Every structure is written in structure tokens, then in C-alpha cells.
Amino acid sequence: MHNGQTKGIKMTQHSGEADYRQILESAYTELKKTRSELQAFKDAQNEPIAVIGMGCRFPGGVDNPETYWRLLRDGVDAITEIPRDRWDIDAYYDPDPEVPGKMYTRYGGFLSGIDRFDTEFFGISPRESLHIDPQQRLLLEVSWEALENAGLVPGKLSGSNTGVFVGLFMDDYAQRSFFTGSPADVDAYNCLGILRGMAAGRLAYFYDLKGPTMQLDTACSTSLLAFHQACQSLRAGESSLALAGGGNLMLSPEVTVGLCNLKSVAPDGRCKTFDTHADGYVRGEGCGIVVLKRLSDAVADGDRIFTVIRGSAVNHDGRSNGLTAPNGTAQEAVIRKALENSRVDPLDIQYVETHGTGTPLGDPIEVLALDEVLCKGRSRDESLAIGSVKTNFGHLETAAGVASLMKVVLSLHHGEIPPHLHLKEPNTHIPWENVPIVVPTELTPMTAREKPHLAGVSSFGMTGTNIHVILEEAPVQSGFSISGPEKKEQEEQDKESELPMERPFHILTLSAKSEDALILQAGRYEEFISNHPDISLADLCFTANTGRTHFPHRLAVVAENPRQLQGELSSFATRNESAVKCSVEVQDQKTSGIAFLFTGQGSQYVGMGRELYETEPVFQKTLDRCDDILRDSLGQPLLDVIYPVNNKVSG
What we know:
By secondary structure, this protein is an alpha/beta fold.
């Protein structure tokens, strides 16, 4: 700078003011952009997660979400005496709790057929299968069923960043197959087959999944922790889809003997949660897997959404009254954090599926924690409802969290709270008259309201790890409601997706790896239609045709309505060969493209293909595209030629 002049810059009287204005405008634009990016990041961190599929095996003959809901709705007590194929109960039972090496209960919640496994279906040799922990075999079966329930073809997930988050706890099978005291019997199969860490990896390997894969163990809260971790992975963008859940089997008596020594088990084999006679829990077994996806992706993909996860939280008791003792302060903290993460008002929560084991110490602590966090300012008219599925089939330990979660998913899906069992005299250590909390003992409709229904799920591990999850009823595209801007956007999408046509006939395709399996499959579909007579035939066929893996043994049935389809399936399932003759075994599954040829040279006529145009969206869309392409080349529109005004199709 020389002689008061600025080199290279021409200054005017107002140039400095103009430069500052430009700088400020640029800074303001950058600030808006940064704020927008920050808000998008925050929204992603709190994006709701959709539950789009479920699979389960629970006591009482429960082998899918449908039968699970029936058990819950009907208030079924699924506790039985310990089966002889587990251990000789007479040899281990003694009513005196002080007798060493004995158990003072004869009861539990058990699955049947855990020794059965279709090795060929999963590509595992019979020898290897024999040495795989049945808990891992259950996870394979239930995860496949969960994906099918979600309408996803497992093979199409190959190479995807789908995450796997599962929990196992007990090692009963290891005692029978590995720690036998005979080292000569140890081989590569039983060495790998008992490792809990292999469970999640085995699923990812079988489906060829590339997302985060982990096995978790926090005892009783394990499977709900798996669910929490899966949601976090989806929000962080690590996974585009996630499988979460856990399993538990009781194969050896030692754990039950130990729990009896701790006086944790109820002698009569019933969880009398919130009852004054609560004296412990009953052990149960089961397996559950849920399929999760970010809500925005689920809506965009047209998935069926059972319910939506608003948020969750996890913490630990720290040093409490004992290693296994519950900590009310920690329970309050984890629920508050879940509310914060969900951006939900405590008074909007209508129901909480409690941990609710039925112990004299744990029940009052949990109820008082719920009152402290969720009931301040709550009126009696809007009392918080609570319950525990453990009263139906016991404490499933590692699978307890996913069983509780699925109960709430189904409750929100059906708009009803199932009955809580074994509550005859409310626990006198809980000040019921001072807390706006109720325990429904019969099937209870959820209170009608303008806002979406909200519910919570708690799971507290014996290790001290606590989880709370908050769920909201599903969006309107699944028959539920969405609030705010999302609702308006969803309604617009629904209007655009409506088709003004319906096919006169539909084709259902089923397949299996054997003829016997195909017959069983047809029977299950026949039963499903029988239980859902108003089912959309178009939706049923579409999902079966596109959302299932196609195996060599195949069945195709054409029907005009659900009742006709049910009859055809029933005939096939009962091997009535005269009724259905369209079952084939495909040897070579390589398929070629299909083309339709419409001849010219005089065979055309006015209105040709009209019914096809009216009933087949793909044909209509293709013909409309041809019409657009030829507009500039023809004297009049193609559709006007094919369908003159007097013969023009509607819609």
C-alpha cells in the first residue's frame, strides 16, 4: 500500500459497505446451511424405526405372531410340568427348598420339537447339525420366518449391509455335547457348535449379510439390548436393515437347581406379578426375531409396518443393594432417557409392558419407578396401564425382552391390551390408592385418542443392565395413523398409489424344497385365509409371489376370490388330485424372459386388449408409454385409434 492507495482494488464511496453486505449475506447463507445440516443430523439420530417383520417360538404352541396374539388375547396360561425329555423331574424334585441338589418346583414354560431341524433346508450336514446348539438352530428357523413375515426374499439380502444383533445366555447344550469328561469325543463340529458368539455369525454367514453382526449377553435384558443396538445401528447408517432378538432353552437341571437355592423361583410355577402372594418367577424358553428398518425407508419401500420405535435407552444399576438386586433410581433414569430420546411427553404413554417377574422385592420397586417418571400430573381417568407377559409363560430369560416387545407391537397393532394373569390380590407393598396405575385383567381396548397410541417396554437384567423402549402405533399406510407433516405427506402418497382397477383373477404361487413341505405350506395358507376371510386377495398373492423364495417344488392356483382360493388349497393339502393339477417340480431354476406378441395383418380389431388394459397395470402403463412415444408420429393418439371415444376405457 503506497500513497494511500490500495493496489488492485478500486474503492468507491459505498464499496466498503457493499463488500460487508455481501460478506454478511454469504455468512448468513452458510449459517442457514450449517443449521439445516445439523438439524438433519439430529433428525437422523432420532429417526423412528419401523418393525416390518416378526418370527417367534414361545410356550403354548406359539409358532408365529398370529398364534402369539391368540395366546395373549385369550389369556392362556402356557405353563406345564417339566417334560421328561429334558430331565427326570422326579429325580430332582423335593418340596423342601433346603435340600441340596434339588429343585422345589416341577414347572416351566417349554417349547416342543426342539430336537427337530431341517438340515437340508439350511445346507448343513446332519453330523454338523447334531453338534450345533439348538438355540442357534432356532435362531436360523425363526429368522427365516421373520424375513418371510416381512415379505422379504432372504436371497435378495445377499451382500447387503443388513445387521444381526442376537442374544444367548445359557450353555446347557455344551454340557451334553462338549464338556462330557471325554476329550476323545471332542471334534471340530461340537467345538464350534456350542460357542454363543457363533450364533450371530452363523446367521450372517447363511444369508450372506455384510452389516454389523454381534452376539450380546446381559442376562434377562439381552434381547431388548439387541433391539436397542439394532436401532442405533440403523440410525447411524451402519445398517439398512436389521435382525434383532434372542433365544433361550432349558436343557439341563443345574440352573434351575441354582435358582431354587437363590429362592428366585415360585414353587407353584406361576409368575404372580403385582400380586401380594408373588414369590418368584417360573423359568421359560423361547425365541424371537424382529426385522427393523428406518421408517422413511419402510414407507418408501411400501413395507407393512407393525409399529414404530420412537426411541430407547440403556444404563446400569451401578452399585445397588446387591449384584442382582433391582435399583429403582436407575430404572427411573433409563425411562427418562428413553423419553428424551423419543421426544415424547410422559403423560402420552398409555401402557408399559413391565419387566414384572413376580418377585416380592422387584415388583414394588418397578411400579414406584413408573409412577415417579410417567404419572406426575396424570389423572385417574388417564391411568397408566401395566402388565407382564411373564404371567402367561414365565420368564424367558434371554428371550424375555423380545417376547415383551412383540407383545406390545401386537397390542398396538390390534389396539387392545391383553389380560394380565394371576392377579387376585394386589401387592400390599404398592400404594395403589396413591398411584394412577391399573393392571388390566381382561382384554381391554386402548383408549380412543387423536394422538397415536404410545407404549413402553422395560427389561432389567440380573447383571444390572436396564433397557427401556418406547413404541408408537404404525403409520396410516399400514392402517394406523401418523401425525403432523408426515401424515399429510403419507395421505398424498396413498392417493397417488391408488389403482382404479382390480384383476378378475389372481394367481397364488407357493413353493418348498419337498412335496410334503409344499402340502404343509398349502395347509398353512388355507388356515390363514380361514382366519382372515376379508383378506385382500391381491395383497396375499402379491406377497406370496414376490416376497418368498421360490424352491423346486411349486404350486400355482388361480382364484377369483379368497373363498375359492381356500377351497383349492384345501383340496391340494388333502391330496385331492382331481381338484388341483398345477403342482410341478422345477429341475432347472434358470428362467428366460417372457414376451407377448400381438400379430398384425388384419387380426387386429377395435377395442382389442381392452380388458387387459383395464385390469393389468403393467400392460396399461406400457401402452400409455407407447401412446406418448408415437404422439408426434401419428395423425391421432394411439389410444384413440385402439379405443375410439365410444369404446374408450374408463380410468
